[in-house]
Recover the amino acids of this structure.
């Protein structure tokens, strides 16, 4: 059965009361859009300045259960939120502002109650078992270059007051050296088998590394008013305001709750459904994070305004690139400048037209096809910011220095009713022995082979990747059959099958990235760098330490079951 159709059937079942008497869903078409102002999340600096010198300032950031208003006309929603206190905790969490070269030390504190507010599935690999008395959490700084002990290993989880700890837990305080290039990161939960539900509940936030020496000469829009993170995700709600996630799996006899993708009809930006922002006629910088479980966004402006890209994920690109639209997969960050002085209207709607699941699912509707509204003031402004001809150049990939070539195949497995049961990388579960062991300081070439029908955003912890090309696989069914039997791209003659049409990589995505969208039925050739990209210096930490790192699909429902593999660096 088509998974989109099944999702609709399960939703109808829930509305009829067969799933739960309390599953009465909000009809989002009856919620008025653009009634709430766009919030700017609290900003927490991980440093203070003493005698003109920035010094590290230790942080304590907690995870709290609280109520949150997503829309003027919705009842308050029970959520999990990051903050210094329960009162100040927000969804998304506070934006952590850090400086290049100044360490961040964070003690992430779990103040959550024993029982989860969302359904979870005990039949997939998960941190919860029959004896766990609390909600396991662990924080991963996405895009960060730091030691394994601070990476938020899926099994380094802990419950309230650190009463229970996962098998790879080792420390209460995480250390982020911030020795990498300046750019955009984000932090979120990463607990084994619970990432999708913990993020749905609200455990996510933005993190920025700034480097004034590199960035001030660029002259880009700056300051809290003109340089703003936009954290975008989707949610569905019951009429009592609670977050809706179906408690019925697509294969309930196998997985009672797990579904291959979560989609909500309300689009949330900085914690508000379809908010509005009044802007001046000048340039603004928006650091847009797609924090959805599974939804892709293809953003565009209703009035034809254009995006000028200055960075992608955690790294600047070489020069600004202007586009009419931009496709952003789950966990990707697109860093853009919008010049509202070029608008011919006083209103611009940021909209979305990406099918879900992407790319072959349903088209968007009125609710999930709108994101937010910009109200543009009529008077022209003096604008001292600029778009430079060039941004930041990093060393090019030297293919002669490549030390290893790897093949990573993406598989989806189905039940007798042709519904997904689980997904693997290289046909191996997470707990199988590690097979990816790159050397510290090396550059590798990976061929990522997508044998499924979905686009999978691949995220590699620690490493940065650069995309060379994406090529359609010919005689695909023959190749799939061979790969299913042998799981060996060389023996299955990948070179012969990777001879179809090439997909052009957009200029704004040709720089160094933390995530890339793997097209179904294609092989994507990437370079993966396991060192800093802005310097030849060695890591300031031991990247070979336990528990190592991981790489995974960042559709969270896939990652949880179990499209994730260990990554162990060696000297």
């Amino acid at each position: 059965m088509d998974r989109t159709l099944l999702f609709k059937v399960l939703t109808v079942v829930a509305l009829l009361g067969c799933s739960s008497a309390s599953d009465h869903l909000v009809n989002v078409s009856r919620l008025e859009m653009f009634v709430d102002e766009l919030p700017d999340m609290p900003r927490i600096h991980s440093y203070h300045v003493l005698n003109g010198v920035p010094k590290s300032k230790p942080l304590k950031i907690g995870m709290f259960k609280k109520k949150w208003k997503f829309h003027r006309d919705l009842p308050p929603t029970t959520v999990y939120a990051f903050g210094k206190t329960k009162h100040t905790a927000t969804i998304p969490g506070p934006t952590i502002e850090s400086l290049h070269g100044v360490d961040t030390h964070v003690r992430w504190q779990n103040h959550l109650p024993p029982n989860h507010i969302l359904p979870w599935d005990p039949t997939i690999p998960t941190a919860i078992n029959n004896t766990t008395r609390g909600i396991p959490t662990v924080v991963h700084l996405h895009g960060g270059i730091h030691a394994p002990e601070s990476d938020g290993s899926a099994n380094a989880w802990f419950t309230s007051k650190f009463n229970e700890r996962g098998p790879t837990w080792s420390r209460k305080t995480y250390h982020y050296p911030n020795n990498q290039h300046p750019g955009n990161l984000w932090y979120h939960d990463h607990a084994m088998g619970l990432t999708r539900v913990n993020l749905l509940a609200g455990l996510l936030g933005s993190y920025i590394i700034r480097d004034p020496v590199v960035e001030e000469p660029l002259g880009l829009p700056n300051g809290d008013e003109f340089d703003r993170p936009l954290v975008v995700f989707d949610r569905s709600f019951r009429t009592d305001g609670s977050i809706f996630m179906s408690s019925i799996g697509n294969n309930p006899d196998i997985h009672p709750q797990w579904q291959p993708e979560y989609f909500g009809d309300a689009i949330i930006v900085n914690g508000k459904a379809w908010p509005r922002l009044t802007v001046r006629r000048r340039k603004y910088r928006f650091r847009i994070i797609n924090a959805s479980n599974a939804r892709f966004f293809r953003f565009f402006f209703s009035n034809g305004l254009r995006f000028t890209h200055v960075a992608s994920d955690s790294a600047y690109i070489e020069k600004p690139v202007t586009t009419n639209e931009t496709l952003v997969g789950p966990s990707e960050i697109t860093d853009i400048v919008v010049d509202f002085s070029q608008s011919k209207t006083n209103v611009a709607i940021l909209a979305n037209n990406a099918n879900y699941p992407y790319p072959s699912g349903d088209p968007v509707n009125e609710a999930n096809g709108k994101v937010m509204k910009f109200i543009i003031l009529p008077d022209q402004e003096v604008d001292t910011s600029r778009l430079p001809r060039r941004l930041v150049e990093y060393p090019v990939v030297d293919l002669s220095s490549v030390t290893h070539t790897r093949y990573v195949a993406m598989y989806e497995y189905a039940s007798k009713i042709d519904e997904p049961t689980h997904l693997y990388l290289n046909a191996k579960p997470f707990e199988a022995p590690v097979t990816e062991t790159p050397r510290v300081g090396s550059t590798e070439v990976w061929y990522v082979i997508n044998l499924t029908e979905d686009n999978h955003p691949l995220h590699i912890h620690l490493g940065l990747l650069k995309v060379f090309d994406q090529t359609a696989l010919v005689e695909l069914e023959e190749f799939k059959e061979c790969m299913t039997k042998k799981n060996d791209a060389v023996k299955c003659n990948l070179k012969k099958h990777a001879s179809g049409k090439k997909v052009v990589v957009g200029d704004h995505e040709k720089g160094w990235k933390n995530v890339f969208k793997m097209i179904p039925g294609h092989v994507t050739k990437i370079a993966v760098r396991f060192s800093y990209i802005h310097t030849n210096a060695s890591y300031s930490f031991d990247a070979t330490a336990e528990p190592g790192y991981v790489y995974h699909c960042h559709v969270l429902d896939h990652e949880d079951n179990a499209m994730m593999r260990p990554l162990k660096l060696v000297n």
In short: The chain has three domains: 32-216, 227-380, 399-567.
